[in-house]
């Protein structure tokens, strides 16, 4: 009997051919020549991701320099009219394209934690080009993050999988993913209720919403990128409806991620948003890769432990690099209002550490009354 395209047994056969599970051997779990031979495609994805994150770091610093350069001018023009700002935006698009391609050739659980390279790279680039201080905690954080990256690359899932449309369809209707999506929707609705109805603006709630959307983003990004990669090699996948379903999910989840992330950056400092978002995003992406693409199927317990330890080191490295960074930009802890025309104040005002403002200036009524009183007495 001929096997039809939609036959479940055919899909399972295809999956078994596409996967290379944790094969025993002397090279498994170590950076040996055998390990390199088995993981050339994965290492190419790692290289794409690292380069993409470094390009993103450069783009962010170029955009930051553009804003600083514009602020020094007397007649500042809008940022979107700056050639520097558009150069940074173009580089960011290039970097994100590298990350997008990396998801198509390597597991999610390998690519997602490499986002720490963007944070650590930004610290070095800002120290070189923007003359910002490179602190001891930055150097320690970079060292810890690099150690975590080494463990991640070495002990991430040792599996190869061609992402075809039929593979994505099979996973999309699997009971594991359906249960995961139902639970994720329930948690998302609960968090959204507290955020919208109760007015809770806690950073954990906002970034948890971002992370829940991010899990759908990485699933759809890997599906879309993998199907495009397979189509380029001659096996056309773009005629399947699942490709466009995943494309819509990818775009919609990215848009709403940006919305909630912007709210978090408006309410909290980047030193708080960056490490928390990195931890939440990476954790959500790893869970999504494990559940949807079954990337840790058959993994040894020791390998999983070392991989998780590598994730912890990357989290710690990001925290050390971002810790108290914005506080260094305050050159003085007091602001002198004595030289402002029309305002008289002999003392200095200390900024409010819990707010976004430095307090209020006197309206001048007291000083006016005192001056008029002195004139009357005179």
UniProtKB/TrEMBL annotation:
The keyword tRNA-binding is annotated on this UniProt entry: no
Region (Disordered): 350-378
Membrane topology: Multi-pass membrane protein
Key words of the record: Membrane, Transmembrane, Transmembrane helix
Keyword Transmembrane: yes
Subcellular localization, as worded in the UniProt entry: Membrane
Gene Ontology terms: cellular component: membrane
Listed InterPro entries: EmrE-like (IPR037185), Mg_trans_NIPA (IPR008521)
Any one GO MF annotation of this record: magnesium ion transmembrane transporter activity
Name of a matching Pfam family: Mg_trans_NIPA
Membrane-spanning parts: 41-62, 83-104, 110-130, 139-157, 177-194, 203-221, 241-261, 273-293, 299-321
Family in the record: Belongs to the NIPA family.
PANTHER family assigned: NIPA-LIKE PROTEIN 2, PTHR12570
Name the record gives this protein: NIPA-like protein 2 isoform X1
Gene source species: Mesocricetus auratus (Golden hamster)
């Amino acid at each position: 009997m001929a096997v039809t395209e939609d036959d479940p047994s055919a899909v399972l056969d295809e999956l078994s051919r596409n996967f290379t599970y944790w094969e025993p051997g002397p090279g498994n779990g170590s950076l040996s020549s055998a390990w390199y031979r088995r993981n050339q495609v994965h290492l190419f994805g790692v290289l794409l991701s690292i380069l993409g994150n470094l390009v993103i770091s450069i783009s962010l610093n170029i955009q930051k320099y553009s804003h600083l350069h514009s602020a020094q001018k007397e007649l500042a023009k809008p940022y979107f009219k700056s050639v520097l700002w558009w150069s940074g935006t173009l580089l960011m698009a290039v970097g994100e394209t590298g990350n997008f391609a990396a998801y198509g050739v390597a597991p999610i659980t390998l690519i997602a934690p490499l986002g720490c390279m963007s944070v650590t790279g930004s610290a070095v680039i800002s120290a070189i080009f923007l003359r910002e201080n490179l602190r001891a905690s930055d150097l320690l954080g970079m060292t810890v993050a690099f150690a975590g990256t080494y463990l991640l690359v070495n002990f991430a899932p040792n599996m190869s999988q061609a992402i075809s449309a039929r593979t994505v369809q099979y996973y999309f209707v699997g009971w594991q993913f359906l249960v995961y999506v139902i639970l994720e929707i329930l948690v998302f609705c609960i968090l959204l209720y507290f955020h919208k109805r109760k007015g809770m603006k806690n950073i954990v709630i906002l970034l948890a919403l971002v992370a829940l959307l991010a899990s759908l983003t990485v699933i759809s990004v890997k599906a879309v990128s993998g199907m495009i990669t397979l189509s380029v090699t001659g096996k056309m996948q773009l005629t399947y409806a699942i490709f466009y379903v995943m494309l819509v999910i990818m775009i919609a989840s990215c848009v709403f991620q940006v919305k909630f992330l912007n709210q978090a950056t408006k309410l909290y400092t980047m030193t708080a948003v960056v490490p928390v978002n990195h931890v939440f995003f990476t954790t959500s992406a790893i869970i999504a890769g494990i559940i949807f693409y079954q990337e840790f199927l058959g993994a040894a317990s020791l390998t999983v432990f070392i991989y998780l330890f590598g994730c912890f080191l990357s989290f710690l490295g990001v925290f050390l690099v971002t810790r108290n960074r914005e506080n260094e930009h305050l050159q003085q802890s007091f602001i002198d209002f004595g030289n402002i025309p029309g305002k008289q104040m002999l003392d200095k005002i200390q900024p409010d550490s819990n707010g976004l403002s430095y307090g209020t200036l006197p309206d001048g009524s007291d000083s006016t009354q005192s001056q008029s009183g002195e004139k009357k007495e005179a």
